[in-house]
Amino acid sequence: MSTKLLKGKKGIIFGALDEKSIAWKTALKCYEQGAQLVLTNAPVALRMGEINRLSELCGNAPVIGADVTHLDDLKHLLQDSMKHFGGKIDFILHSVGMSINMRKGHHYTEISYTHNHKTLDISAISLHKLLHTAWNMDAIADWGSVVALTYIAAQRVFPDYNEMADAKALLESISRNFGYHYGVRNKVRINTVSQSPTRTTAGSGVKGFDGFISFAENMSPLGNAPAEDCANYCVTLFSDLTRYVTMQNLFHDGGFSFTGVTQGVVDKMA
Fold first, then answer.
1. Could you tell me the CATH number of the domain that includes residue 188?
2. 190 in a domain, yes or no?
3. Cα–Cα distance, 159 to 153 (Å, whole number)
4. What's the confidence (pLDDT) of residue 210?
5. Does residue 269 surpass a pLDDT of 90?
6. Which of 58-62, 104-108, 181-185, 205-209 bottoms out in mean pLDDT, i.e. has the lowest?
7. Strand, helix or coil at 183?
8. What residues make up the domain containing 59?
């Protein structure tokens, strides 16, 4: 049900590939709640995905391609978005991640550092580049909100999550550090949302992903958080209801992050 929580807000959604994407569901929820949107992804993802269909579902939102590792692309994205909106941006979702070593089947102890640098650039440093560009352009409105999606492997070891664990840890650090500076200057808040393992197109490519899903389900008092509920959570973080929440890593995982063990897991072990 729409309460128009984001009425009058203008935002950019990064990373919607297809209807399985958390970014896709977040875009739909933001539009439902009254926001105006710009959709963006890497040029190759635009060709592979279905973002034009999402655009239609979101009131023919503009689709602007941008490689998050290129500062010029980000500058053009922000310029074109502000021109479309007729003003500054109120919120941004950073839903970007790719591990080249995982795609190529390289074990964490044997990664290619050339690939590793690219993974960190795409999955984490891209957030710094985005915020740096927005900072220099004064593109985000006062009391704006930026949310980046992460995973608990940034704090705990999940062997098959590989180098993405390092990338997520860096992503969370950037969120905290840039969150301080942007908060002081413009009251912009920056947070990460640590979501349950979710059956997205990208997530399903992680080795042993079915095991991740099953384990988390059994270890979470509420069960795994669905992607649609993560989208709802992001909407609240873009809204004025969370104006003083910043620099936080917010777990949206059904209680998994603070559960030592569940009776269900004990019973299985016994």
1. 3.40.50.720
2. yes
3. 9
4. 80
5. no
6. 205-209
7. helix
8. 10-269
**Three-state SS for 251?**
strand
Coil vs helix vs strand at 25: helix
| Residue 80 domain flag | yes
Residue 62 is given by DSSP the state -
In a domain, 47, yes or no: yes
Please give the tally of structural domains in the chain. 1
Q: Is 173 a domain residue?
A: yes
Element (DSSP H or E) covering residue 149: strand 140-150
In this predicted structure, the answer to whether residue 238 has a pLDDT above a threshold of 90 is yes
Place of tokens 């994205």: 77
Q: Measure the CA–CA gap between 69 and 25, rounded to whole angstroms.
A: 24
What is the pLDDT confidence band of residue 189, given thresholds at 50, 70 and 90? very high
In whole angstroms, give the CA distance from residue 169 to residue 155: 7
- Is the separation of the CB atoms in 19 and 98 below 8 Å? no
